[in-house]
Each structure stands twice: as structure tokens, then as C-alpha cells.
Sequence to fold (874 residues):
Amino acid sequence: MLFQQILNGLTNGSLYALMAVGVTMVYKSLGMLNFAHGDIMMVGTFITLTFVLMGYPLYVGIALGVISAAILGFLLERAILRKVKFTSFVNLLIATVGVSYVLRNAAMVIWGTSPQLFPSMFPETLIEIGNFRITPQSIGVILISLVIITGLHFFFTKVKIGKCMQLANSDPEGAAMMGVNVTHMRFLTFGISAALAAIAGIMIAPMTYARVDMSATIGMKAFAAAILGGIGNLWGALLGGIILGIVEALGSAYISTAYRDAFSFIILFIVLFVKPTGLLNKKIENKL
Amino acid sequence: MAKKTNKKSLLAKIVIIAAIIIIIPFLTPNMYIMQIVNMIGIYIILGIGINVLTGFTGQLSLGQAAFFGIGAYVTAIMNTRGGMQFLACLIGSMVITGIVGAVLAVPALKVKGSYLALLTMGFGEIIRIVMINWTPVTNGTAGILEIESPVIFGFSFDTLTKFYFLIMVFVILGILYEDILIKTRTGRAFVAIREDNEAAELTGINVTTYKIRAFVLSAVYSGIAGCLYAMMIKYVSPDTFVNNTSNIILWTAIVGGFGTVVGPIFGGIIMQVLPEVLRFLGDWRLVIYGVILLIVILRFPGGVYPYIEKFIDRIRRRKKSDAAGGKG
Amino acid sequence: MRDVAILELKEVTKKFGGLTAVDSVDLKVGENQICALIGPNGAGKTTVFNMITGAYQVTSGDVIFCGESICGKKPHEIVKLGIARTFQNIRLFKSASVLENVMTGFHCKTKTGMFNVVFRPGMCRREEAETRQKALEILKFLGLDNVKDNEAGSIPYGHQRLLEIGRALATSPKLLLLDEPAAGMNSQEKKELVETIRKIRDTYNLAVLLVEHDMELVMGISENITVINFGRRIADGTAEEIQNNNDVIEAYLGRSED
Fold:
């Protein structure tokens, strides 16, 4: 029972982590949370589902869904956020909330509000090890998330374009002086972040059904995971996601299922209160 | 001399505003529209409430629906279970939302920007989850039915038109209070915190207590709106107090005029009328509504009121120069 | 005169993690005195200011103001006791008007709250009118009365510096801390600034402690100068004494640009 719950927590947690990585990347480049992140995930998921229902193989659907999400990410940066960039922080944040509103309502019109079955990319048969039964889905989700996050880590530290992105986000002026096209890098950041969200959504949907309102709760949990681990930090996002997933699983198993979604926010409150910089980031002293 | 004309124009303003308020119910063709008008009033109260916190003090809130909801539930419970009447419910809603506002302020003091936005959003979500699951008190997803109309000293506000005048009293009192407060020491402290937190502290302002005050004040405004809402609709359920409602409350202030006292009047009207005007679009109306709001935010970053003010100013100046030209 | 110290720092130390930014610095400002704190870039001057105003906690040592330790007090409490400051990079309430900026400075000297605007409107109106009057007097004193209704962020740079001083004066300080008041000013403006600082001292009867890079200005105005380098005090005395102090010459000449 306990093992089962922890495994569930790890599975969900690695998905929150995948979402949180995207949140963290955009936070670094924009200096704020993208409140449309969850909605981009939802739209990517539904586009995949649409192609699958049209008769395309699942893998084609996934590819198209992820690509569409990336394009949506590009568009968000290009058409909306760049226009408000220099007016004010509040407006920038409200603009992402506005985009979220538009996407959610458009999705409701196009795909309806009822939950829909979503095909899984993993086999159904259970793996039995002694007394424990594990679904291939759990293993697959955890492995894919780990591989992607590790891959991103290498991309950002070893590959030239990844290093340029890091630099463009942390020190735009310095990067521009070294000949890095900061605009393109920001563009790319949004695209990758959106694509990651879509991948997470595609793996979440078979477990929870594809539903339009998944964007709000999962989006908020992604923010919570990113902040919990320490925003701007890739490993922090992973750690935050996993802690959140496990607390949620154990909390709903041993305390109350009804308050499942509240646990992550309560944790968020505690983290913001005790160490607002998150678990893996250092405390910054206020400079006058 | 100058003082006299000031008094005269003030009197003229009062007469015009009173006339508009009295005429509106006679112009509304049916009860459906009367209800929309009343909702505008309630959203104006919510808008001026969030403006204290976000517009003047600079503390972003994406969880305002929680205070609105708590105000509504407190009234619903006090009325249906305790048999208490309007004024008692109103005071109850104000006190409870005020306390919850102060409690939320404690973690909120530590964070700013997106973190604060997320914190308030999470707070809204927690309150909604509690509303759904704390069944013995809130009656769960079914909500609380059969709330009575407000009765004040034997007079019952049992029609939407009567209710309209009750709401208008609170809209006017709410605007007057904020207008006075913002121009005094408290308002200056709020603005100082918005402009520069540290500099405010080093100008002798106790930033902590003033932020708490802003949270409490905006919560109490939302509590009043919640009380009025519960007694008008006569029914409360968790569906009303969702994240979406928080966004609309914030937009009411932003679209109307961020950090202006009367801006939310325009915000309330735009936010409530637009979806009705867009009804011909069918299912797509909320999408277009969102797109229009986005355009307004991009095009009028400070809300529409400052532009309206400028426009009126220009007309007035032109009239004056015309008059002067006519004489010469 | 030096016996009646209004501000006294006793072996004040500030550590950030393992780094010692300020190392047991002593400093005294006498009543009505104009003093300066100088040192090369990164010597820890602003850190000293931040400890006096309570923005930073002192790691060890003591800060005594008017015979009372102010360590551990909150910044706004210290303002109320009578220490006001300006900032190196101007920090006005930019979208408020010039007059409102100064009126905000009167915060800790006034009482109007959230309830008595309703229950005691007469008292509030009187206090408001009084605050406005006093703020206007300060603006007139600084020569800013003709821009009183402009947005604070829109007035010229030199005026913004003066306005910051005006906002600080509104808190009726006994000690005024000026953080690089002459930064970005031309020589004419600097001359006027010296006059203004003296005038402020005499009119408002207060002591001034300034951090400044412009040596001519510092030497011309200060009655006492404290020099710090790498967080340590290396000299203390009159302008003449400082100019002939070998440690000081070394500290400054050791850096090629000065």
C-alpha cells in the first residue's frame, strides 16, 4: 500500500516536474510565471487526441500535438508578451492570464467540457515483482521525464545553443554583446517550454482523461513544484515535482481524498512563508 | 469666488449622478437586465476593493473570489441557519472576510510579484475546495438555497429594483470612503508601498501593517459584495467563486482604471455588459470577450478611465477656448 | 562639540556569510555637525548607512542614537526616532506628485487612520491641511514649489535629488544621511548643493552625515571625515588631517583611477 502510493506519487511527481521545468525556463527569461502554461499543455493534449481520433497513429498525433504546442508558445511570446514587455509587470502577468482565459474558453467550444478517453502509449499488462504490481505506464512516465530533464541539463550546459539560451536569459545585455540573438533565444525558450508541457499533458491524460479543466489544477501544481524546488533551477523543478507528487499521494491516501488538490497549495504556502527562494536556491539579501 | 463655483459644480455633479441613478431602473425593460445592472453594482464594489490592494498598494491578487465567496457564504449561513437579517449578516460577512484577509496577509507579506499572484490564486483554490468539501457547514456542491431578501427596519428589498437602490447605496459609500481615504495619509502610504517598498519603509511607513490594512480593506469590500450577492441571488454554490471570477474581478479594476477610484465603475460596466452584447456570437462569445479584454490591456495599459478623463478634459478646454474666442 | 555625539557607531561589524563587509568601524557625528564617510568603491560605506537605518542587522557592535541603542529596531521606527536618508540611486515615489512625495514624508508625524476619516473628519481635514502647508514650506525652501504638481519621476534629475532631501526633511530628522548627493551633478549644481546642505543644517537644526565621491565637495563642507577601506576605518579627522594622512593617500593612490 505505502509502496504503491509512493510509486503513484513518483509518477505524478515526475509529470509535475516536467511541467515545472517549462515554468522555470520561462520564469528565467521573462522574470515571471506564465499563467497560460497549463492551458498550452491542455491544448497540446487535445490536438494530439484530435489527430488520433481522425485515425492517425498515436505517435504521429503526439508529434503533431507537441509541435502545435511549441508553435503556440512561440505565438504567445511573439504576438502578446513582446508587446507588453516594457509597460509593466502587472500588465504582463495579466496578459498571460488573459491568454489562459481565451485558450480555455476556445478549448471548451472546440472540444466540449466532458472528459474524454485518451490512448496510452504504454502496454496495459501489469508487471509483477513479488507482491508489488507496477504498471508499465508508471515506469514509462518516470523514465521519460528523467531522460528529458537530464537531456535538458546537458543541452543547457554542454550544447552551444543551450548555453546561449542560458546566457540570454540570465544576462541579456552581456549575451547580446557576445553576438547571441537574445530575441531568438527567448523565442526558443517559449517553444521548448510549451513542448515540454504538451509531452507532460499527453502522459497525464491517459490516467485522468483528457479534460479542458485539467489546465488550471495541473498548471498551478507546476508553479508550486517550480517554486518549491527553487525557481530557475532545473534540478529544483525535478525535486519540487517529486516532493509534491509524493505528498499528494500520501495525503490523499492517509488524510483525505477530498482535499487532494489542496495539499500542494498548502505546501506552497509553507514554502513561500519559510523559504521563498525554494529548497535549492540560496537566500538573497535585499540590496538597497 | 473660486470656492463658490467649486461648491456649485459639486452640487451640479451630485444632482447629475443622483438623476442617473434614479433614472436607470426606469430605463431597464425587464428583470433580466435589472439583474445585470445589479451585478454591475456588485462588481464595482469588488473592483474598488481589489483596487485598494492591487491598484494602490501594488499587491497583485488573483484570489479575490475567495473573499467574495466567504462573504456570500457567511451571509447565507447566518441567514438560513441563524435566521439573522441583513444588517447582522452584513456585519458578520465584513468581520469574517476582514479576519481572513489579515490571515492571508501574513504569508503574502513575504512575497511579491508572480509569487504573490500564485499565492493568492492558491488561496482562492483552497477556499473553493473547502466550500465543496466542508459539507456540514457549506452543504457541498449543492450550495445553500432559500436565502431571504434583505429587510432593514421592516422594509423588505424583495424586488430587483428595490435591491438596486440598496446596492447603489453601498457603491456610493464604497467609492466615497475610498476617495477620502486615498487622499489622506493612509492612501499616501499605500501608494508609497506600491512605488517603492524599501523607500516607503525608510520614509517612516510601517510597511507590514499597511500591507495588512490593504489586504483587510480589500477583503472587507469583497465581503460586502458577497453579502449583497447572496441576498440578491438567494443561492450560493462553489461554482460561482472559481478562479475565473477572481480574474474577472481583477480585470474589472484593470480595464476600468488601475489605481483610480472611479475606474472600476467603467470596468464593472464593460466586464458585465460585454458578454451580453456578444451573445450573438453563440458559443464563441467568451473567447471573443477574452480577446477584446486582451486588446484593451495591450492598448490601454492603465485602463480606460484615464483616457476618458483626458478626452473630457480636452473637450472642456476646447469649449473654454471657444467661449474665450467668442468674447474676444 | 564632539562630546555631544548624536550618533555613535561602536565597533560595528557586518558579515555576509563568510565575507566581512564592515569590520569594527567606529564613527561619531556631533550635534549640528556635517560629517562625511568616504572611501574607495566597495569600501562598505553604503553598508554602514544600511546598518544605521536598520535595513541591515548589525552582526556585532552597537549603534547609538541620542544616547539610545537602535540596533534591532525596524527601519520605520528608526525614522520616527529621527534618522532620515536619501539614496544613491534616487528612489522617489515616481508616479506620485512632487507635493505628495513630501507629504508622504510626514507620515510618522501625523495620525489620520482608516477609521477616523469617517468618525473624526474635522480632525483629519485639519491635519491634512497642516501637512500640505508644511510640505509646501519645505518645497519652497528647496525651490521646488513651482513643480509641486508634476509627477516626481518627470522632473529633472537635480530636482529629483533635492526632492528626495525634501521628503527626508519632512520626517523632521535630527540626523540626515545623504548617500552620494552630488552624483551626476555638474560643478555649478555641486556648488549650490553645498550651500543647500549648509542651509538645511542651519534652518532645520540637524546633523548631516554624507557619503560622497567628490573630494572637493567633501573637503569643502565636512567638519569631520571618516575614511574606510575594505570595511575598516583607516582615518578620522578634519579635512586637513585627512589630506595629509598617509594611509588615506595610499588607499586612494593605490587605485590608479583616483
User: Anything to note?
Assistant: Strands of chain C lie at 5-16, 19-30, 34-38, 60-65, 68-69, 83-85, 175-179, 207-211, 224-229, 232-237.
